[in-house]
């Protein structure tokens, strides 16, 4: 592949050169310093080349502080003419030996070209401990170690308990190497954290700086963590097996660098998070673990209604914080109101900054008597990590006015908190009839009635139905192919149900999903498992005139099942695949 690139580049240069004027020379003058390496052991040698594209005079080298000159300066001149374009290069070379460990700078060299003085840019050289293989050609692993890095960027290393932090895993790749593929070897478990993966729609290559050098990087994984325990918590490393191509010392026919393929395992390393406990000073007695910045309110759908009608009372907490990790305060209502178990509603989205949205409990309330009933105010307390203090929000008191309905007592007060057990007055039993006005029942003879004849002749009429059912059963038993199809249908429904129960467990979910898809195909296309291949399935579905979108959706599900064996899949992705499986099977049912 690289040889082909060099051919194309070479042909392009020849084509471009053909349009230049014979004898034309480049007008730009360059004079630069190139070193064999910027980091070397104290027992290694350094080559420094001062290269110019025009001939010059009065070359003045730098003083090479921190190095001993072993050889040089040696001169090398290269000159050529291609399609009338002159190419010229002159090089002064030095071989240097470092005197001690440290960081040194090779200063400016100068030369006069056509009466004008040109100077090189200084370069910093780092000298480290002695190496085992001085000035030996670096191996592919050595090159990969220097040019490939997996980093876990943590947004905050000292959060409070239940305060969100984000971890972003980035793979940095030097422009000198090429990554062809990678696969995760070990995904972090995030013990003692509540975790939520932020799915990536695609991998985007971006430019960045790592350790002061330009790199390309790609974001591999994003996760939001809520620490559930104070103290030092470890984030397990993410490990990747990376397939890459690294340059060697060999050159091809055109002078281009020859690359070799290798594999390298990189790890993000352990990260320690120092989780601070929530302060005990000022901690409210009703604190339920909410950490963040919230709003709180209690509302009702009605403030006036009749007895036996219903209203909804809603307790809502909204804002940013650990919305899924605490209990809502309970609503207290007068005992004269019939209250049903609350319905929990959640509208929470999670991004790199944490959870945002609202959680609510909705109570259905049915009053039985006339009167005015207060819904007392309740409080919600939480810890705000930005302000580093506890806060409390109290709801307003709401009065429910029941306009029409039975009265609890003859002298019902304006505000009733519970029906009274004793009632005064003489008309409290006005709704009970004292004269029942009973009518004697007439008894009829049962024999000869329609009911009697139905019970007598009914069993005789079921005999033909029984014979018909028996024949159909025998026909079904004789239909071996139909029995196999029905069995596969049942298995597909069974495994799809199993997949739904396994949501959240990637391995179990996708194994059950794959079995369900296979059994569905066995039922509809009458093929065995040994015949399964994507091309075969696509061909059969096309022959059945199945819509391309349904066919592509089915193939995509199979590919996801295969990819899930070695790639991380989030809860959201699994739910989407389950929903997609239901839609695709429904679409195929209509077509088949």
TrEMBL record:
Pfam families: BatD. The keyword Signal applies. The keyword Manganese does not apply. The chain crosses the membrane at residues 451-469. Residues 1-23 form the signal peptide. Keywords: Membrane, Signal, Transmembrane, Transmembrane helix. This is BatD family protein.
